[in-house]
Prior knowledge:
By secondary structure, the protein is an alpha/beta fold. It has eleven helices and eight strands.
Amino acid sequence: MKASALRLADTRIVYDDENVIKRIGLILLATDLTSERDFARMLPRDAVDLYCSRIAYANPTTPDNLRKMQTKLSETAALLLPDEALDVVCYSCTAASVVIGDEEVEAAVALGKPGAAVVTPPSAVCRGLGALGAQRISMLTPYTKETSAPMARYFEAHGFEVQGLRCFGLEDDRVMARVTPQSIVEAAREAMSESADALFISCTALRAAEVAGEIERAIGKPVVTSNQASVWMALRRAGVVTAIEGYGHLLRCPLTAT
């Protein structure tokens, strides 16, 4: 090509206004097979853009191993659209948020992405259960007993009565992601106590959100899952009040005051 053939375009370029729709950032485990798909499925794409960053992580899913991610949270958050503003950042790991602590996660993410609201799955679940008027809960997790026990203590410390907890005994989140939705439905039936107001299904790796509505119909009570609650909380914190159909009652609820 001749040098004379290269020239700037004469077209008048028109730019969109900045931040015309809300921006949600998602920090995923390196091994996560489920969260990104769930967020993309549930978020109203005409109102929200989703941006993802993955944090270094290696199985097994034990409290000590999950806690190791804390030192990497700030640098991982900083990789989400550097020098661009986000409305919300969600750290997509329920068990790690419990063992590290919600406040510690929020502080670490804020260092990497200042100005963004921070959502953790367990804090979102607490707000979601509150919005549903649930105080007595049953729980289902895919974890081992060692990793499940701190989950029960977390919710008890936040004022909920745990009526029962069932777990699968798995320690690899990639295996958790392969549990079939129908298996989750059957396990939810088993886990639900008659005295509970709602069922919480933990773990962002578990494909529970896609069958939350089916489980609600089966047990006759509201169902809150990690990814469903995180999407709901992220939307509400971003100021998006759209009701999302097909993933359980929570995504149709407003964000109530704490």
